[in-house]
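Design a sequence for this backbone.
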């Protein structure tokens, strides 16, 4: 089983699409569901580690992903847990600024590190703050030179400021030859500011055509370089298309991937912080192998591409953060991705038949913090 562990709600950044947005005013949302939030949730992890370890021990092969806020603000706890916890694999999702706080022998135990970067320096710093890109890249170089050989994923948040083609190409050209993989996620949390954004136009005229271009780039690279680039929004769905498989929710939330809150309650997803109505248990007495599942529902169940999309996001499926029109725009981006990948499928099959690449080149760790469907 996969578990995210929320170490702290604090963060050392105030990114424009995340905490900074909390200070902006918002519009009324007609359809939004009122969700009970546990306001007493501690900011810092407050569970006894032996209780957590006892819970994890009941799973023969747990994977633990450190998450926040910014988890490296608790580098002390991470160092302790990586040394002691009964866990098969460790991962972390970090903004990368404090990676130099961990000793190399701890960093080198991670199988996967997801580092938030939005693309080139100007774009990243515009969203995340001046000097962030360079400091993060310094740390990325540092951990590589200290022997980290695991998967290093550049995780982008994509807003209307992004030229998606240029940003993915930039990270893929691998500044300093460091990243093995790329994932991106749309900033579709309109948080009541849809009318103040140009998301609709941008999605139609820039993002969706950009995805078509990137899929072509991706398959051209397979043909020319005999290599399947690890671009997660393409990699995971294409593997399923090649195998003729439908997918459940691709991030695994609510059935394979759960999140441990700072007070030990277990939520279906790391974003459902404090959503106590959806907790599936507590680490003090839950069986990690038999947690309640929380399924996708609503309109997704009638969607013709549910098997491709998986429902995109359990959190938004439950909270209904969008007006109808807004939801349709997001779903059109999924349909566009589906069209681009299914359109490329015959060419990919041919490259496999000609042995330029193999089906195994698409294999990857599932539920590694990449949501897959942007
Ligand atoms: S495309 Fe939209 S409606 Fe269809 S499964 Fe995905 S999220 Fe649900
Ligand atoms: S895609 Fe949605 S359900 Fe999945 S981890 Fe992200 S917020 Fe949670």
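Sequence:
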């Amino acid at each position: 089983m996969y578990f995210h562990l929320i170490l702290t709600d604090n963060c050392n950044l105030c990114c424009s699409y995340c905490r900074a947005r909390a200070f902006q005013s918002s519009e009324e949302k007609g359809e939004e569901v009122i969700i009970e939030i546990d306001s007493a949730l501690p900011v810092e992890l407050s569970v006894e580690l032996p209780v957590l370890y006892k819970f994890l021990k009941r799973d023969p092969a747990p994977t633990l992903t450190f998450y926040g806020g910014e988890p490296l603000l608790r580098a002390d706890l991470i160092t302790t847990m990586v040394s002691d916890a009964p866990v098969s694999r460790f991962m972390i999702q970090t903004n990368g600024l404090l990676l130099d706080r961990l000793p190399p022998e701890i960093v080198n135990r991670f199988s996967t590190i997801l580092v938030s970067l939005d693309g080139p320096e100007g774009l990243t710093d515009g969203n995340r703050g001046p000097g962030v890109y360079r400091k993060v890249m310094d740390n990325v170089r540092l951990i590589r030179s200290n022997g980290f050989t695991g998967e290093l994923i550049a995780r982008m948040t994509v807003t209307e400021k992004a030229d998606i083609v240029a940003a993915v190409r930039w990270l893929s050209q691998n500044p300093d030859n460091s990243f093995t993989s790329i994932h991106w996620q749309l900033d579709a949390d309109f948080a009541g500011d849809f009318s103040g954004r140009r998301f609709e136009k941008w999605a139609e005229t820039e993002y969706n055509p950009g995805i078509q271009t990137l899929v072509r780039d991706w398959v051209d690279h397979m043909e020319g370089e005999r290599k399947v680039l690890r671009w997660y929004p393409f990699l995971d769905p294409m593997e399923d298309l090649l195998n003729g498989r439908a997918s459940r929710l691709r991030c695994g939330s609510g059935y394979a991937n759960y999140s441990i809150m700072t007070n030990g309650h277990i939520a279906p997803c790391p974003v459902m912080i404090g959503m106590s109505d959806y907790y599936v248990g507590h680490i003090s007495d839950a069986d990690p192998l038999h947690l309640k599942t929380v399924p996708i529902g609503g309109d997704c169940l009638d969607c013709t591409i549910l098997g491709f999309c998986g429902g995109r996001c359990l959190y938004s499926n439950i909270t209904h953060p969008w007006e109808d029109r807004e939801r349709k725009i997001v779903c059109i981006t999924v349909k566009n991705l589906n069209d681009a990948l299914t359109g490329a499928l015959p060419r990919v099959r041919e490259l496999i038949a000609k042995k330029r690449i193999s089906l195994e080149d698409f294999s990857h760790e599932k539920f590694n913090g990449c949501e897959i469907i942007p």
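The longest strand covers residues 151-158.
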